[in-house]
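Shall we go through a protein fold together, starting from nothing but its sequence? Please make up or recall a protein chain and show it to me in full. Go ahead whenever you are ready, and we will take it from there.
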Amino acid sequence: MLYLIAYDISDDKLRTQLGKRLEDEEGRRINFSIFECYLSKARLRKLGEWILPKLDEKTDQLAIYPICKSCYEKTLYWPDIEEGEKGNSTVVIR
């Protein structure tokens, strides 16, 4: 399943580690702390087990949004992304 993962983590080292881990999961960075990632339930669970105990509930935030195929096909990006980067499933504003 595709997930949109957004985070605001105060600790620089942990924030960098999470970004690297999401890149290792072949996530696509949308913004500095926002990724699109295709994850199985098992991989999502493993990610949660790794990151959740490390978060500071007073200062850190993590949001993981499941994106269904129908919603993903309606995704709009601004500014444009590279042609072909998302295949035929993305509407790109021109």
